[in-house]
């Protein structure tokens, strides 16, 4: 339990979320959801008393705990909402449907997609036929009953697709079927909510339907707004049991809102309210006119309050995936699934063999020292039988008393042995020399064994680190890309107006950065038309990058970060050395993340320079590949510890800065303090972690998180700048610095340190200043 709790805590600190991995807990949560969904759908009545949606949900849930939960929810709410007499009909039908599913669960026919829908319709027909026969067969009620039977069977088919899409084949029409099925399920829920009345005659179901139509029209345009309006209106008409008024009203509102959807949220909301006011005049019942207007106004207010980030995530619901995009999406899904399976395999391997490398409680028993000594010296001695047979206990106690001081001193002396033993032994001098030889061999064996177990443990931990890296990569590959359909359409129209044939794709990266890619031929003219591209996308851009192939070209456009960083590196080698043992680097990834790195190799000169350069080269390779700093540093630490020499212990100072958000993190392995100036105050970030490779595998870097903004300064320095305890002059100089050039500040710090003459060592200073990116002048 403690180990699982620790894993959940570590995952929360690293990822910002906790993933529940207990199958029982997840199954209980699923059953609870099915219970409430079944109960909600049981309350969805149409035609003045028919409720087929709950029966359809029981059929879709099938056998097992999932079906039983749906059955209980439908039965309970049927009796609660309809009373015993009418509710008994639906309880009986639900029980029959579940019984058939339970009985045929292991058969081949049960797996047919139309089996349970047919059973739902048949059981609805059987139980309802009894009630229908009391009032006659040639009445309008017969038409309503026939519709109920058809809806029970049809909805069971679509509900199955909606609640378990993973079980379907990956056929070409899967996306459309899922969308339609989910829409039908939502319609049933809206029918149930339509009876929930709020003050002023407002219906909760109509309000939810109104909001859905507004969001669909504003984000998906005319077609999506009209389609959603017809679907939501049909649900409300079924709940009301009257003329198709809501279908016309909602479709009209969705159509008008879709026309002005490109004008922004405010225009879309106003158009929706005006369309709602116009349809209010058509209402047959005067009691509905004001509630309809109120519902339109409330829905518009909620829509205006919804954050844009949330609406962007919903945009994927309103996009139609083209045939050429579908294979790429399937390939990403397959690659992500295989990476996740590989990660799980490495994690299971780590858990299976990780416990094998714990130190043994009795590692290489020291008794073997005297066993081997006796076999060499005492075998031919005349007193061998006396010492090792007749007086065995006395001999054992004497040697047992001597082994402790010998191990502590790492060598034996005559004083370590009792007098009665050393005086009686005929070859004591030879016995002591052989014992010391065996003691030395024993200590070497113990050291080798410990080192071997540590190396094996380090390799084992690499499996865990590799599992984490693969899981993160799988999540990134398999994650839904946040496409920007409006910006993409605007860019496509601009390309068409410029006479350039190309296919554009616009989406948001995980950091929130807008990225556009244009594929086609003869894209060079776009390199000189950045202003037109910025106007089409609505954001400032960095300099475009053109990639060329034999038959194609790709132009990559990246949104310019709101923060701009100026970085400078200055260094001075130790007196008498030809090269500095420090190494510094800085680079920016395509996602707008800036990395600052500084490593101080152990010692000085060429060897230290080689080690620090290798450390930064490996770290840069990891970070450019998209691996997060902490797992990258842990992997580096394990690799350095396996080399087993002191020269492999290097300090690592790493800073990660998001130039879109200003969020920053400092990671340290034995590094000197980092200085951060915000306003006129300078803070000092220190660490207690040893250098990378010093403590063996399993060590973690010290991590400090902070928020930076325009005007802030950061100073990374090696320990040659100051000894860490007497660095008041560093903080004072940084706090009072009035210049704007990071290079000047770095040189000034080095000159002051050189003039002080203390702490003679390689000195390196990496200075950074953040500022807001200047806006381009209009025109």
UniProtKB/TrEMBL annotation:
Residues 566-770 form the PPM-type phosphatase domain. InterPro entries: Bact_Sigma-Reg, PPM-type-like_dom_sf, PPM-type_phosphatase-like_dom, SpoIIE_N. Pfam families: SpoIIE, SpoIIE_N. Keywords: Hydrolase, Membrane, Transmembrane, Transmembrane helix. GO terms for molecular function: phosphatase activity. The chain crosses the membrane at residues 55-81, 87-105, 114-132, 138-159, 180-202, 243-260, 267-284. Coiled coil: none annotated. This is Stage II sporulation protein E.
């Amino acid at each position: 339990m403690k180990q699982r709790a620790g894993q959940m805590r570590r995952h929360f600190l690293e990822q910002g979320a906790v993933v529940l991995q207990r199958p029982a807990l997840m199954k209980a949560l699923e059953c609870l959801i099915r219970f409430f969904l079944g109960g909600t759908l049981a309350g969805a009545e149409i035609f003045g008393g028919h409720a087929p949606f709950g029966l359809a949900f029981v059929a879709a849930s099938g056998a097992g705990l999932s079906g039983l939960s749906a059955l209980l929810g439908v039965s309970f709410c049927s009796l609660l909402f309809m009373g015993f007499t009418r509710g008994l009909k639906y309880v009986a039908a639900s029980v029959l449907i579940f019984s058939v599913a339970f009985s045929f669960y292991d058969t081949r026919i049960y797996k047919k997609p139309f089996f349970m829908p047919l059973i739902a319709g048949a059981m609805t027909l059987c139980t309802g036929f009894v009630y229908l026969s009391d009032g006659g067969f040639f009445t309008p009620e017969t038409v309503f009953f026939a519709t109920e039977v058809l809806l029970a069977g049809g909805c069971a088919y679509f509900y199955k697709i909606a609640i378990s899409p993973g079980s379907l084949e990956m056929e070409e029409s899967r996306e459309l079927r899922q969308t339609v099925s989910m829409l039908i399920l939502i319609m049933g829920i809206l029918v149930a909510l339509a009876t929930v009345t709020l003050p002023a005659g407002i219906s909760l179901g109509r309000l939810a339907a109104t909001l859905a139509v507004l969001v669909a029209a504003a984000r998906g345009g005319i077609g999506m707004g009209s389609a959603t309006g017809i679907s939501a209106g049909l649900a409300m008409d079924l709940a009301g049991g009257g003329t198709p008024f809501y279908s016309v009203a909602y479709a009209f509102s969705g159509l008008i809102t879709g026309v002005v959807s490109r004008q922004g949220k405010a225009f879309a909301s106003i158009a929706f309210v005006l369309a709602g006011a116009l349809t209010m005049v058509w209402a047959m019942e005067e009691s509905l006119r004001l509630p309809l207007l109120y519902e339109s106004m409330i829905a518009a207010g909620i829509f205006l309050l919804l954050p844009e980030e949330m609406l962007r995530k919903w945009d994927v619901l309103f996009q139609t995936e083209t045939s050429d995009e579908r294979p790429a999406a399937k390939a990403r899904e397959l690659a992500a699934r295989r990476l996740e399976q590989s990660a799980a395999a490495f994690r299971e391997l780590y858990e299976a063999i990780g416990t094998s490398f714990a130190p043994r409680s009795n590692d290489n028993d020291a008794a073997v020292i005297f066993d081997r000594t006796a076999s060499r010296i005492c075998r031919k001695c005349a007193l061998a039988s006396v010492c090792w047979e007749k007086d065995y206990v006395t001999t054992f106690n004497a040697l047992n008393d001597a082994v402790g001081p010998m191990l502590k001193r790492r060598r034996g002396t005559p004083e370590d042995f009792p007098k009665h033993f050393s005086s009686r032994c005929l070859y004591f001098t030879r016995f002591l020399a052989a014992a010391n030889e065996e003691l030395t061999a024993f200590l070497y064996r113990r050291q080798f064994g410990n080192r071997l177990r540590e190396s094996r443990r380090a390799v084992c931990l690499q499996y865990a680190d590799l599992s984490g890296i693969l899981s993160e990569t799988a999540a990134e590959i398999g994650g839904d890309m946040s496409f920007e359909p409006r910006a993409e359409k605007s860019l496509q129209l601009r390309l068409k107006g410029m006479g350039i044939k190309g296919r554009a794709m616009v989406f948001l990266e995980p950091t929130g950065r807008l990225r556009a890619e244009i594929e086609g031929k003869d894209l060079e003219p776009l390199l000189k038309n950045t202003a037109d591209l910025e106007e089409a996308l609505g954001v400032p851009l960095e300099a475009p990058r053109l990639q060329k192939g034999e038959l194609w070209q790709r132009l990559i456009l990246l949104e310019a970060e709101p923060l701009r960083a100026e970085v400078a590196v200055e260094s001075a080698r130790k007196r008498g050395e030809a090269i500095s043992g420090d190494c510094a680097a800085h680079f920016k990834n395509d996602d707008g993340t800036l990395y600052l790195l500084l490593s101080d190799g152990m010692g000085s000169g060429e060897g230290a320079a080689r080690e620090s350069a290798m450390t930064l080269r490996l770290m840069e390779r990891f970070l450019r590949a998209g691996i997060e700093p902490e797992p990258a540093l842990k992997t580096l630490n394990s690799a350095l510890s396996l080399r087993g020499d002191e020269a492999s212990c290097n300090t690592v100072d790493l800073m990660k800065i998001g130039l879109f958000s200003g969020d920053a993190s400092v990671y340290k392995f034995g590094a000197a303090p980092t200085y951060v100036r915000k306003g006129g105050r300078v803070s000092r970030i220190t660490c207690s972690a040893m250098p990378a490779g010093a403590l063996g595998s399993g060590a973690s870097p010290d991590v400090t998180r902070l928020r930076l903004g325009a005007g802030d300064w950061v100073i990374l320095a090696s320990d040659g700048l100051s000894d860490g305890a007497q660095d008041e002059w560093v903080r004072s100089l940084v706090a009072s610095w009035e210049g704007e050039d990071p290079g000047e500040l770095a040189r000034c710090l080095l000159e002051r340190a050189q003039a002080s003459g203390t702490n003679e060592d390689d000195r390196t200073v990496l200075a950074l200043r953040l500022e807001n990116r200047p806006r381009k002048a209009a025109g």
